[in-house]
From TrEMBL:
UniProt topology in membrane: Multi-pass membrane protein
Signal peptide segment: none
InterPro entries linked: BP-dep_ABC_trans_perm, MetI-like, MetI-like_sf
Annotated compartments: Cell membrane
Biological source species: Streptomyces javensis
Name of protein: Carbohydrate ABC transporter permease
Statement: the UniProt record of this protein carries the keyword Iron: no
Domain of life, source organism: Bacteria
Keyword Plastid: no
Record key words, sorted: Cell membrane, Membrane, Transmembrane, Transmembrane helix, Transport
Regions crossing the membrane: 26-45, 86-110, 122-146, 158-178, 199-221, 260-278
Pfam families (alphabetical): BPD_transp_1
Coiled coil: none
Family under the similarity heading: Belongs to the binding-protein-dependent transport system permease family.
Length: 293
């Protein structure tokens, strides 16, 4: 009768390697969970606040859950304030600025990424530097320019300011994507008799749609959430955007935390849903130009 050999115990080094790998996975997942919790917690707190009664919000002990809940703050947002007008203003200004910014960013990026432009490195460095400037440093110069042109408290003045605000970010996102496309495309289009604009419109832009979608989404979010320029350049509800409108909810003696939380949820929830629906396209547009074959 043949004896069955006893199982060979795993080497101590292999056991330690598996334990280290398991520890790394656990720590990584814990870190990811902490980042997600840190990012989501403010929105969840605002959501809970928007359903709580005023008496609960003013109590000494905070209420983590809206029990009992109320929809009074959401009703007040659309009946006691001009919130619908602020929403319309934000949509008009943001959509206009994002559309114009995408057109300008596509033209500028095409020239910088695919044409022999002298000093393109300096131009890109300037664009990147402009995106790092604090907004407070450009408020006064822009105010003086808009005031001289008679564009204060107008859709045109605010939209043009937002174009300049989001344009460096759009160029930065599109540049790597345009660079990743093979130059043979431009050469083939030139052989067929296409000019620069025709090549951009018919060849480059269709292939760059993921990057354009990502740049447009990031520019839209940047313009939608902007507060300082809208506060400085608008003075009436006819042209003020949502962030300025929400800041105006408070009075001298009372801060309606529930109403402000409800308005914040109404404004933020569409952005969250859009990002969740198009997150793959956004990530693909940002990372598609990372590797050039």
């Amino acid at each position: 009768m043949t004896a069955i050999p006893a199982p060979v115990p795993a080497a101590p080094a292999a056991i330690r390697a598996r334990r280290r790998a398991l520890t790394r996975r656990v720590l990584f997942r814990a870190a990811v969970g902490a980042v997600v919790l840190w990012s989501v917690a403010p929105f969840m707190w605002q959501l809970s606040t928007s359903f709580q009664r005023d008496r609960d919000l003013s109590s000494v002990t905070p209420h983590w859950l809206p029990i009992p809940g109320t929809l009074e703050h959401y009703r007040a947002v659309f009946t006691d304030y001009e919130f619908s007008k602020y929403l319309v203003n934000s949509v008009i200004v943001t959509v206009t600025a994002t559309a114009i910014g995408l057109v300008l960013a596509a033209l500028a990026t095409y020239a910088l990424a695919r044409l022999p432009v002298p000093g393109k490195g300096v131009v890109l460095a300037v664009v990147l530097g402009l995106s790092m400037f604090p907004q407070i440093s450009i408020v006064v110069p822009l105010y003086l320019v808009l005031n001289a042109l008679g564009l204060l408290d107008t859709y045109t003045g605010l939209s043009s300011s937002y174009v300049g605000l989001a344009l460096p970010l759009m160029i930065f996102v599109l540049y790597a994507h345009f660079r990743s496309l093979p130059t043979q495309l431009d050469e083939a289009a030139a052989i067929d008799g296409a000019g620069l604009l025709r090549t951009l419109r018919s060849v480059i832009l269709p292939l760059a749609l993921p990057g354009i979608a990502a740049a447009g989404m990031l520019g839209f979010i940047t313009n939608w959430n902007e507060f300082m320029l809208a506060l400085a350049f608008t003075s009436s509800p006819e042209h003020q955007t949502v962030p300025v409108g929400i800041a105006g909810f408070q009075s001298q003696y009372f801060v309606p935390w529930g109403d402000m939380a409800a308005a914040s949820v109404v404004v933020t929830l569409p952005l969250v849903l859009i990002v969740m629906l198009f997150q793959r396209r956004i990530v693909a547009g940002i990372t598609s130009g990372a590797v050039k074959e």
